[in-house]
Specification:
By secondary structure, the protein is of the alpha+beta class. It folds into 2 domains: 94 residues, no CATH class; 70 residues, no CATH class. The chain has 6 helices and 3 strands. It has a 3-stranded antiparallel sheet. The longest helix is centred in the first third of the chain and has 17 residues.
Length: 169
C-alpha cells in the first residue's frame, strides 16, 4: 500500500465533503471521510474486499479505532452518492495532477457576545470557531483556492519584478 495515495485520498475526500457542507453524525466514532477512504483503498489494493481493507487499514493505524465490517458496509451504502462524486474528483486529481489547495480564514463581523443583535449575519450557521486564533467569531469564512497555474504566474511575476496588483483583471 502506498502511504502517499492513502493520505492524499483522505485529504481530498475530507476537504471536498467539508467544502460541500457535509456534516458527520455526532454519534459516529469515525468520520464519513474515513469510511470513504477505506472504500477507495479497498477498491485499489484489495479487489473491492471490504473486510480485508478494514482489517489492514486498522492494523496500519490509518483508522481511529476498530471497525465492524457490517457497520462499515451500512455506512458505505448510506454514502453511495458521495462515493460516486468523490471517485470522479479523485480520478481528476490523480490523472491530471491538478490539486486545489483549500484554505480558509474567518472574517469576523462582530464578537460572538454581540451576535444576537448583529444585522449583517444571522443564525448559528454564521458563527464558528477559529482554532488557530482560539477565538469564537460571528461572520463569514474567506476561502482561498490555489491551483498550480496561479503559483507559476506568481513565480513568473516575482522574477520579473511585476507587482501582483498589476496582474488583476
Amino acid at each position: 500500500m502506498d502511504d502517499d495515495f492513502i493520505v492524499t485520498a483522505f485529504v481530498v475526500i475530507d476537504k471536498t465533503m467539508r467544502a460541500l457542507g457535509h456534516r458527520d453524525d455526532v454519534r459516529a466514532q469515525a468520520s464519513d471521510a474515513e469510511v470513504l477512504t477505506v472504500a477507495v483503498v479497498g477498491a485499489k489494493y484489495f479487489q473491492n474486499h471490504p473486510a480485508r481493507a478494514v482489517q489492514v487499514m486498522h492494523l496500519g493505524r490509518y483508522l481511529s479505532g476498530p471497525r465492524s465490517v457490517s457497520r462499515f458496509n451500512r455506512r458505505l451504502h448510506r454514502l453511495a452518492d458521495w462515493l460516486r462524486l468523490l471517485l470522479e474528483t479523485l480520478g481528476a486529481v490523480f490523472t491530471q495532477g491538478r490539486v486545489f489547495l483549500l484554505e480558509s480564514m474567518p472574517v469576523p463581523v462582530c464578537k460572538r457576545v454581540r451576535a444576537w443583535r448583529c444585522r449583517k449575519v444571522r443564525g448559528k450557521d454564521s458563527c464558528g470557531y477559529c482554532p488557530a486564533k482560539k477565538e469564537a467569531f460571528c461572520g463569514w469564512r474567506l476561502h482561498l483556492v490555489c491551483t498550480p497555474v496561479v503559483s507559476e504566474i506568481r513565480r513568473w511575476a516575482g522574477d520579473r519584478g511585476v507587482p501582483l496588483v498589476a496582474l488583476r483583471g
